[in-house]
Amino acid sequence: MSDKIRKTPKEVGARHIITLLVENRAGVLARVAALIAAKGYNIDSLTVGETTDISSSRMTLVVRGDDSVVEQAVKQLNRLIDVIRVTDLTGEEFVERELVLVKVKAKSEAKAEILRIADIFRAKVVDVAPFSYMLELTGAEDKLSAFIELLRPYGIQDFARTGMTVMTRGSKTLGNQAEENLRGAETKKVVGRTEAS
Amino acid sequence: MKLTGSEILLRSLLEEGVDTIFGMPGGTIMHTYDVLTDPAVAPKIRHILCRHEQGATHAAEGYYKASGKVGTVMVTSGPGACNTVTGLTDALLDSMAIVVFTGQVPTTAMGCDAFQEADVVGTTRTCTKHNFIALKTEDIPRIVKEAYHIARSGRPGPVLVDLPRNVIMGRAEYRGHPQELSIRGYKPTTQGHTGQIKRAVELLKSAHRPLIYGGGGIIHADAYEELRELVDMTQIPVALTLMGLGAFDTSHPRWLGMMGMHGTYWSNMAMIHCDLMIAIGSRFDDRVTGKLSDFGKQCKIIHIDIDPTSIRKTVHVDVPIVGDVRQVLGELNKEVRKVERNWAGDFAAWYGEIADWKAKHPLRYGPMHDTIKPQYAIDMVFEVSERMNPIVSTGVGQHQMWAAQRYRGRRPRRWLSSGGLGTMGFGFPSAMGAQAAFPGDLVICIDGDGSFQMTNQDLITCVENNLPVKVVIINNGYLGMVRQWQELFFNRRYSQVDLTIQPDFVKLAEAYGVVGLRAKRPDEVQPILEKAFATPGPVIVDIVTEREENCFPMIPPGGAIKEIIDYGDPIPEKLFQGLR
């Protein structure tokens, strides 16, 4: 009740991980991206892939923004006809994974050190050239960031991240937990940390 | 039975009950227009050939709002489709159910900058409720079924269907119109949550200064009987938004008028002094709330709306109820009926306050001598036409606000105006669309000289199709609302608002073969309007008014409701936005 008016978009930047179950057809990605863009928010990462049912795809969207504006965006995503389910996982228990490929400069004297770092992080060497290694690592966002920071001094030549994909822990699925989200009053359960405070 | 895509399309439209199409043919949609002449189709579908595609979309909006039936538009690819964007956006913001069919270059040429090609699905993605592209001929029946369902259900809105030329010319087996419909991503909530309705009733029981703030949703849901019942039981005063006008009988003792930027003083005061606001089918538009940080602090808010995204979008709501307004009000009324309370008695002090505001700040304008006051002209339009129960449309600007302030209708679906998008040029074609739905009714377009010049090419469409729309131009030779802002906030430095160089509207009427009339003195207004409304066929009435009349009350842009400026009030210094 204390805060009746939403904050302006730039004021707060909490990270929100939104998962969507969408129709697997042309143009859906554009609809989702356009909606987020219309809020003036940059999408940190976005992954899309088919589900076990080829008529639908699953998206994971990471975006930073004010809670109430993201709540509004989630409702608006839900309103899109090609979107079957949406959930903001903020505050939920979930597993997040991302894959990174890094091509790092490897002079002879640095080779052993790089391999030791890779070993500590359980990264794999997937390609070897005379003066570089390509390393592959899977993990949560902070693990990947730490890994990259350690490699940076050696000289990163090329670098690609897949963007995050997530799944809730326990028996909840994207299907059943999103049910409540369709009704306005209970939407706060999903994202409404502002409502609760 | 194998049929062409065009044949399938038109059969599907007939199955959906389409009897009128507003449109214009062109290269890619020609095949469908050819089938339109088919003896099996031609007598059942009336095609109104509009002279510009924007007009066609507004006509479809007018047709929808007046009749409640989805409006249908058919245009060609490229420029035809692009010209519908304004109408689609207008329809999206004002929740108008229309379906627009656009021709498209063949799928093989798409993306190759072909002649009259535009990425229409991409362009209209954010100005439609949903859009489709038919990539296979056999998909057409399902797409048509879904398009009309999506347009009319839930919160109504515009839907576009893009039809590549090879798809409408191709053949496919036609198995009849689909009976079942299943869109897994689209299931609007219609039933209100029982617990929330009970909570709303609790708030009603303890309210002492309640106010109903109703919007266009009441009209789209056909919930005026339910609203009337609620008000008759509880005696809560009602103010409506621009889009809601008509949802409540303006002769009812609890009627307060329109609220918002140019709403009545007393309804705006009621908004900021109530202890319970019951928002019904309205969306807290910025033209209603004024400065958000000052809005709704003093009261509890109940918000009933079918669109969950409208709830808590900008304003905190205590009891949100997502559902069809008619369903929810029906359930709410059942609960309210059980409440024993001397409603009117308990609200006596509240009514007193409102009456006080009304007495001190009535709608008024200065003395009228030789030149016609626009407010007077609009009052006369309503007075002369009242007993004929007209459908009234407006353009956008000062005339629109004066008309809304003075609206006297008693029935829903008789008021057409562009609210959310504020589209100048909406008035005349939407009146034409409403007239197509109700050929025997009096349809009046109160327009501005600026607005009318934006879409008046459809005058010939009215002549051709025997649509006797009466246009009343409130002619001040200015883009009046912009001029008003320049006067008030930019130190009277007028920039590109003078429309004195204008066509002679009476001669324009004559050029189109319709009756043109002009009033220049106050005493001419009434007889000329009487004559105009009694004349068969389209009529243009040019009412030459006071040029620099301002529209008050006015909540200053960006200001809070309490900063409302009434007629004769000084303009606060801080509102100046220009250089001195």
The CATH topology assignment of the largest domain in chain B is Rossmann fold
Rg of chain A from C-alpha positions?
A: 20 Å
Largest binding interface between chains: A-B, 30 and 33 residues
Overall average pLDDT of chain B: 96
Helix content of chain A: 25-40%
Please report the number of helical segments of chain B: 24
β-strand percent of chain B reads 15-25%
What's the order of the H and E elements of chain A? EHEEHEEHEEHEEHHH
| Superfamily (CATH H level) name of the largest domain in chain B | Thiamin diphosphate (ThDP)-binding fold, Pyr/PP domains
Overall pLDDT of chain A, averaged? 82
Separation of the first and last Cα atoms of chain B: 75 Å
Class from helix and strand fractions of chain A: alpha+beta
Regarding CATH, which class of the largest domain in chain B?
Alpha Beta
What does the largest sheet of chain B look like? 6 strands, parallel
**General form of chain B:** globular
**According to CATH, what is the topology of the largest domain in chain A?**
Alpha-Beta Plaits
What fraction of residues of chain A sit in β-strands? 25-35%
Number of domains of chain B: 3
Kindly give the count of domains of chain A: 2
Please give the order of strands in the largest beta sheet of chain B: 3-2-4-5-7-6
